[in-house]
Amino acid sequence: MKFTQGFAADFAEMQRAVAAGERFAFTRFNTGEFGVLRGRLTHARGSGWVYPGGDTEYHRCMKAAWACRFPNWYVGIACPCCNPPEFKWYSQNMNVMRQRTTFATLFMGANWPASREWALDLRKKGWLLIGPAGKGVDIEVPENVFEPQEWDYEPVLNAMLRLDHPFLLAAGIAAKILAWRYWTHPASPKQTVIDIGSALDMELWGRATRVYLQPKIIGKLTDNADKARQKRVNSIVGRTCVWKLAKQPVHRQYGANHDKA
User: Please, what is the Cα angle at 233 between 76 and 14, to 5 degrees?
Assistant: First the structure.
């Protein structure tokens, strides 16, 4: 699988890789992860998740996940349209080649309707979902994990190792640590792991939890008019990100740093 830092193209490439039976781990580093990596106080609006900052176990585990260079380990980072300062930091501190890097918002914006349907189809094909307790997932994690010591990762990790299935992760910040521990474990069968995130929030929570899911923006998906409106709005978001990406000076530095990684 090779990414080219285009929202539509990279999503299509991931779909192709899955259909072809390629095995990989893909996880996304955005605002919450940025705060943990930097050891700074971070609040996640709407979820109640708060990271207090400092050199904590969470901080150290997140840094290890970010530093992972294992084969077929792919990452999404903050995009230059939505988070220019975070994009700059991520792009200047990458540990993987550019062809293994795309954006944390890959399943959002214009890609959200298709990514949601794709994830649901993968569930029908036997992919297991790891997500918040009480939401009908296959493997449960707490709704908000503030620090790794607050709950025992081992049963979840052992289930992933034992079940030998591909996984979708909807586990928030903890998804990064789970994916890293699974992918680097010496006994891992290395089935594909995708940090699908909020793409399935409508199924998990029954309500919008992100701005790009808000009914006032996308409608309630009850008829074709709503779907058409959603597609127009999200397409504008996607095109804006791509347009700004092409004009970001830091993107040239990003390419210079990581084509040779």
Answer: 30
Strands 101-103 and 73-77: parallel
User: Using CA atoms, how far apart are residues 192 and 213, in angstroms rounded to an integer?
Assistant: 26
pLDDT one-digit tens code per residue, 160-185: 999 999 999 998 888 999 999 999 99
Highest mean pLDDT among 47-51, 82-86, 194-198, 216-220: 194-198
Per-domain residue ranges of the chain: 22-251
Cβ(65)–Cβ(177) below 8 Å: yes
Determine how β-strand 73-77 pairs with β-strand 139-141.
Answer: unpaired
What is d(CA 67, CA 184) in angstroms, rounded to the nearest whole number?
Answer: 12
Nearest by Cα to 183 from 174, 195, 191: 191
Q: Does the pTM exceed 0.85?
A: no
Arithmetic mean of pLDDT, 135-142: 88
- Return the structure tokens found at 23: 């095995």
62: nearest Cα among 87, 92, 37, 44: 37
Return d(Cα 33, Cα 51) in angstroms, integer.
10
Instruction: Give the neighbor-by-neighbor strand order of the sheet with 193-195.
Output: 101-103, 73-77, 25-29, 193-195, 167-169, 128-132, 139-141
pLDDT digits over 227-261, tens only? 565 555 455 555 555 545 444 443 444 443 443 33
Which range (37-41, 121-125, 172-176, 244-248) has the least confidence? 244-248
SS (H, E, C) 189-209: CCCCEEECHHHHHHHHHCCCC
Give me 155's structure tokens. 């049963």
189 exposure class (CB count in 10 Å sphere: 0-12, 13-18, 19+): middle
Please report which helix (H) or strand (E) contains residue 140, including its range.
Answer: strand 139-141
